[in-house]
Amino acid sequence: MAHKIFLLLTGGLFFYAISSTGEMLTQEQVFSRQETPLYSDNSLIIALDIYPDKVTVADLCKRYDLEILYIYNNFNMISVKTRTLLSKSEFAELIAALDKADHVLQVNRDAIAHIDRN
To answer: Model-level pTM?
Structure first.
């Protein structure tokens, strides 16, 4: 039976996936079902050491030319994307710069997980 993801929360600090059948899946179970882990070319998940209020997030996004996708208030995390498509080296430089920014605990590329084999 193919599983469809019902809920997926991810970041460097945690990973939870709940399939449409209610089965709790670990990161290893999800990624073992696809040949190679896939990552977004322009979106990131950023863990912060403070509550992600709109002013702080807007300031961070303005400094690094990012667009807010989602603010995970309960986890002190945000999802952002670049306003333009960057080369692989530019994207790596952006991650390194964000990793050193004030209040940033961790920066992760946004993983794309397919758990069905269709």
So the answer is: 0.69
Distances (CA, A) of 84 to 20, 28, 41, 90, 97: 34, 32, 10, 11, 17
Asked whether 92 and 79 are in contact (CB, 8 A), the reply is no
pLDDT in tens, 17-38: 655 566 666 666 666 655 566 7
* Residues of the domain holding 92: 5-112
Question: d(Cα 9, Cα 87) in Å, to the nearest integer?
Answer: 27
Q: What is the CATH number of the domain that holds 35?
A: 3.30.70.80
Average pLDDT over residues 103-111: 90
